Amino acid sequence: MLSIKNLHASVEGKEILKGINLEIKAGEVHAIMGPNGSGKSTLSQVLAGNEAFEVTEGEITLNGENLLELETEERAREGIFLAFQYPVEIPGVSNLQFLRTSVNAMRQHKGQDEMNAAEFMKLAKEISKQVDLDPAFLKRGVNEGFSGGEKKRNEIMQALLLQPKLAILDETDSGLDIDALKVVSDGVNALRAEDRAILMVTHYQRLLNHIVPDYVHVLAGGKIIKSGGRELALELEERGYGWLGLKDEETADSSATSSAN
Amino acid sequence: MKPAPTLSTAFLYPAGQSLPEPLLALRKQRGTALVDMPLPTRKTENWKYSSKYLKLTDDMAISLPAEGKTGSSLAVPGYKVAFLNGVMMPEACEYPDLDGISIQSFSDLSDEEASDLADRLDSTLDNKAVQMARLNSARFEDGLLIRLKPDAVLDQPLFIVHEVTAEASGSAFPRIFVDAGRHSQITLVEEYISSGSAQVMVNTVTEFNVAEGANITSIRLNMEGENVQHIGSTGVLQQRSSRFESHTVGFGGPLRRHDLQVRLEGEGAECKLNGVVVTQGKQHYDNHTTIEHVAAHCNSEETYRNIAADQSHAVFNGRIHIHQDAQKSNADMNNKNLLLSNGAEIDTKPELEIYADDVKCAHGATIGQLDEISLFYLVSRGIGRREANVLLTMAFINELVEQIPVEAVRETVQGRLNHFFEQTFQEA
Ligand SMILES: Nc1ncnc2c1ncn2[C@@H]1O[C@H](COP(=O)(O)OP(=O)(O)O)[C@@H](O)[C@H]1O
Ligand SMILES: [Mg+2]
User: Nearest 5 degrees, angle CA B42-CA B45-CA B47?
Assistant: First the structure.
């Protein structure tokens, strides 16, 4: 489904991704792990088409189609979905308006009729329950005043609404308490399907206890330095990134900045 | 023809013959005072960003004839007053029939009533700060006097349509005086529209005399055409515990100027001033507001938003003057601006003068562009660029549009905004 070959990307002239190769087939769940600052969010944003990042080399195809030639909105309509590490607050646009506009843009692209306000409200209420968000949130501004956990659940809600072909989840587990982690991972598991691929980006392996990946990759210094099955995640948990020849402080949460979105 | 540095004598044009004698006398007196009146220039502080847009040629001096039909864009049931080129059109009006409320054209006033009014016209305005309003006082052909007796309540909004018919060059001088008695209430909508395409000037003055405990909501919609230079002044005088709420929505033009002056004279008075301005092409719009905290324990809250696209130019100047005796004043002024193009210009200036020591006064002004990260978030959900731009631009003013307390006005505003969005944002 998704094929990444020798992908190099820079931001503000600084090279972040230094030759990524990755193949993901329909039905598979891949996890990308790696220390802070290793380029996980950069990879996610590049896949979604953020123009702040410049692809300098390599190719990305989705079902054989050159993704790099598509605008962000076209990629979304082709089935790419990115759950942001830092979902954006947009006061003045209600969640309801945002979600309905999005769903209808997708429907229009597929040649389906737009959903009217009442139909959409019914659907949105159902799905908000699935991710344990009070439907009252629909009236509020997009992510406005949401807690970290609510923002992450809203991202999963959007994935459930839009039913993408490829869902990229950038640290959707970070900042969640145990209950919220359960809600989010139930949502992600509900997304698992024969015709859908999931790419989970995470710093910790705890999410992988709930969502069992088929493959695990370690990203460091802008390259995938190791790939394996789910046991790789467990090994990383036990031995830390140091075991892979990375300095332990690189794995620390503190110093590295992450401003990819 | 070049604009003269002083007001051309052509503008001291005698007319207004249908007015009662005391008002004619007032006009004459005001007109005499206008001989050699300096016109605003770049060096005039309160016009420095806008004087270049003011182009008064002699052919615009004559009063436009009050002939023809009017049509509001607000097709709503309710009370209506229609003015054509500054003159009331009785056949297009629907007055309320309520005790304690009188709505009259200046021409219909008795000499006694007119004499009383003549004493009070201009009393709410600081004429030094609104020099162009003086031209209205010298030239009004007619006007609207609204009087509310104590406790009178107008049960529905009053829609006042001011239309200018620009078949030929000329000017119109709409005038309104509202005298709101103690604890009276009214919501009124002033809508300024135009037809025809000749170069014209509309110079308006609206005054509110607000007695103790009265509650006024004033909505002002400026939607005139690209051939209309509009200079409007609104004066508000508030007594104890009264409330004045204003919503102004303006679309740009070759020259658009609105001065809003509020004087909080009685303790516990409060005002809330909201304003939205949208400009595109080479349009201009300038809002100047002044809030005078004269008495103690008064509140003022002001929120203005400008959106400027293309090569347009928007100006906001907000002055708050807290007088020495105005202890416990609470003033909050906020102005946010959105530039939709590199060629657009926005000038914003808060002016605070505080002479009392125990006051709360907050102000903030920002100028920014649409947020790239928000845009990316929206398009990453399949929303088209054009629609994403519209959502974010609308988000910038939504809060203010939603606060307009009359649905018909919100719809009209939304319609005009949609038109603006269509012209401003193209599909990628
Ligand atoms: N917009 C940006 N501008 C400048 N540097 C950036 C930007 N986004 C990310 N970076 C840099 O790129 C590197 C990788 O960041 P990121 O992809 O966010 O890592 P991760 O998600 O793995 O923590 C970091 O050094 C970070 O500082
Ligand atoms: Mg990250």
Answer: 60
